[in-house]
Amino acid sequence: MDSKRALSVAVEAAMAAGNLMYRNWRTQKRVNAEAMHDIKLELDERCQEKICKILRSVFPKVAVLGEEGTVGDPLADERWVIDPIDGTVNFAYQIPHACVSIALQQRQGNEYVNCVGVVRDPFCDELWTAVRGKAARLNGKKIRVSQRARLSEAVVSVGFAKYDENLKKMLPQLEKLAPRVRKIRMMGSAALDLVYVACGRMDAYLESGVRLWDIAAGAVILESAGGEFWHRALPGEHTYHIVANNGLLRPELERVNQGESK
Ligand code: IPD
Description:
Helix content is 33%, strand content 33%. The protein is an alpha+beta fold.
């Protein structure tokens, strides 16, 4: 598929879903399902439908693997990976930190490569885009990761995925990291964490148990901005441990995690 065309259709879909989110920012949301650390909204489904309609009207044969379900063969050579609302709990509580995340993946052997990424934050009117091999952009302007090479000056975001086992993994890391970094942040949207690292607002982002649709678009945007998207698959479908950073901080992050002193 032509990446330029894919990017422009993904942008159209992300803008449309973002507008729907924005219009519903301060409304009481209809909840479809609730768990201890998770909420599913009726609007998640409506946003995904809107995105699928736009993507499938132009590329009817390309599959969609989405947080709210799949269309077509999710193991096809090309597939869209979408999170219609990333940061659902924020959005449900009317906290304006949530976004639309759309990636195009292509199969290479047994792996999928993120080729196009679009992240739309309708609340700040920000749009991050990338096509693999080209510069990442925020609202059309090229972006780069930060140059901060010391943890002591870094702002590091930590995500807590949806299950208690993820909390158990991340809490000890948080305890070790917090005294060593300038600030820890817990923002509640993995896609926005990744693009914030991509444009140098933050320096690293860690999470265990995050899902593919939360991170696929942000990953290609981060890498296109010069950052490092280190990740390892975990048991469970489309589930990862990630250490995203500006390309300079992983050795120090790993040392802290292994319990070495500064
Ligand atoms: C969640 C957010 C959150 C992250 C969770 C994700 P959702 O996605 O990205 O920041 O910590 O792991 O599941 O449910 O809001 O789309």
